[in-house]
Request: fold
Amino acid sequence: MAIEQEIISTITDLAKRLNLADWGIAPADEMVNEADRLALWISNGYHADMQWIAENTALRQNPKLLVPGTQSILVFTINYAQQPVQPPHLPRIARYAYGRDYHKVLRNKLKKIGSVLNQRFGISGRCFVDSAPVFERELAVKAGLGFIGKNCLLIHRNAGSWFLLGSIFIDIPLPPAQKLQPHSCGGCTRCIDACPTGALAAPYTLDARKCISYLTIEKRGDLEPPEAKMLGNHLFGCDICQEVCPWNRFAIPTKEPDFRPRPWIMNLDARQWQDVSDEDFNRHMAGSAIMRPKAEGIRRNAEAVLENEKRK
Ligand code: SF4
Ligand code: SF4
Reply:
């Protein structure tokens, strides 16, 4: 077997054993069009106060600047599809946060792959899971893993959008994906119509300032009254624009044990979240993505949810 084929079948085998849904190879070329689109998006203020998105643009545009010596990029997806398990009256938590933090889960898997590639083939690689300026979704498209939908998420034609992404920048050339998945939203506008806050400002354009995911997870400090209202009954994240997407009828439930819901997270009501102590929060949330806004942010969100309940 040619060495290239041996490397590819080794990765395929490892990805399968590690419960990864799919993987592909993207070229390490400069991403000028993607950078132009990002600059336009930022110039409209759609990134809210996520200033880090506007920084390191040269590194984001050029993978070879981010990791000198990069010749190919391996992109991996991990499936987190599962049915909502919270009783419907409780404040909503995005499904990707039901179990262990995906950053940790996926990074560990990518590190294992990187280590085998290094030991067996002498390949050097750097793993990223939302941890550096990387055009993750766009690289996934170039790796043949899906298309970007009008809801701005990566969608696989056979498996929907309940995926998380990670990549390994490697120092050898491998043949990039030959067959890319075409844009396949057609005339559908379900995600735009269903978004409760109008955050999908146009097809393929997210205004983070109105997005519940941003407001509940990334926004720091107090919520302005209109922002608090936008939360509805969402405590952490929002899945609406995925729940309505017809491509998700093909979703297959995840087999990843680390994504199993933590009962404590699933069963608290808004009042309990509002009253949670730092100590309890940190103990029960250790290793969870819900740590990101910290106890303070979650209490703030719970207060907004309670206010919204009173308005009903
Ligand atoms: S995550 Fe929720 S608020 Fe954000 S765009 Fe999707 S439906 Fe709208
Ligand atoms: S809901 Fe419709 S328009 Fe939105 S991403 Fe899915 S297919 Fe595309």
Remarks:
- The pocket of iron/sulfur cluster (ligand 2) is lined by residues 149-151, 185, 188-191, 244-247 (CB under 6 Å).
- Residues 102-121 form the longest helix (20 residues).
